[in-house]
Structures are given as structure tokens and as C-alpha cells.
């Protein structure tokens, strides 16, 4: 379970890394869309941050992840400039590919192709519109 301190740092890193990738270092992605940051997890000592990138657009997800990993030092330096007043130490950034959105789209496609027949109707249900009231006593 993450502490409040870890959660605050993860939230700060997620917001600021998104700004760094979109505004400060867009040239790293060759004019294409910068990857979106789906989640950041910080170790208890705040020394490392695991950054999960959503690389949905384009088929070159592995190449784009390698570009980010190769430029991790530049990204960390740009991040340090943005959070130097807030954080004492900028954590080491470790980037991972987050494919949960692609998996959800795949599962949606699989569920959409299933052929599920409709439930059969009972003859008793078809003749009565309202369900019968339960009898509480013999005389009712």
C-alpha cells in the first residue's frame, strides 16, 4: 500500500511528466504525438519512479518506448527544472509500456463477436402480464 507521500509524489510526477513530454520535449517524438502517462508508481524512498506509458496511436510502440528510454536523462533534467521548488530529489525514471487500454479494446472485440442466444420464454409468463401475488393465508 502506498503512503500519502508516495501518492502525492506520483501524482506530481504524472502531471509534470505529461507537460514535459508535450510542451518541453516534443521534438523527441518526431512531430508525432507524445505518449500519455497512464500511471506512475514511486518506491517508498522516492528514489525511483516507474512510469507507465500508453502508446496507443501507431504500430511502432516498441520503437517509441525505446526513444523515451534513450532520452530518459533529458526527460529527467527537464522534469527537474519544473519540480525543483517542490521536490528535494528527482527520482530515477524507469519507463514501461502500459497495454491495458489495448487489452480492453481486444476484450471488447472478443465479447462483441460472441453469439449469445436469447433466453427462452416460458408459456406461463407469456399468458400473464403481472406476476401472481403470493398467498399468505389459505383463504386468500
UniProtKB/TrEMBL annotation:
One of its GO terms (cellular component) is cytosol. Keywords: Cytoplasm, Ribosome biogenesis. Pfam families: RBFA (PF02033). Residues 118-140 are annotated as: Disordered. It is found in: Cytoplasm. Residues 120-140 have a biased composition (Basic and acidic residues). Gene3D superfamilies: 3.30.300.20. One of its GO terms (molecular function) is ribosomal small subunit binding. One of its GO terms (biological process) is maturation of SSU-rRNA. Monomer. Binds 30S ribosomal subunits, but not 50S ribosomal subunits or 70S ribosomes. One of several proteins that assist in the late maturation steps of the functional core of the 30S ribosomal subunit. Associates with free 30S ribosomal subunits (but not with 30S subunits that are part of 70S ribosomes or polysomes). Required for efficient processing of 16S rRNA. May interact with the 5'-terminal helix region of 16S rRNA. Belongs to the RbfA family. This is Ribosome-binding factor A. It comes from Hymenobacter glacialis. The lineage of its organism: Bacteria, Pseudomonadati, Bacteroidota, Cytophagia, Cytophagales. The gene is rbfA.
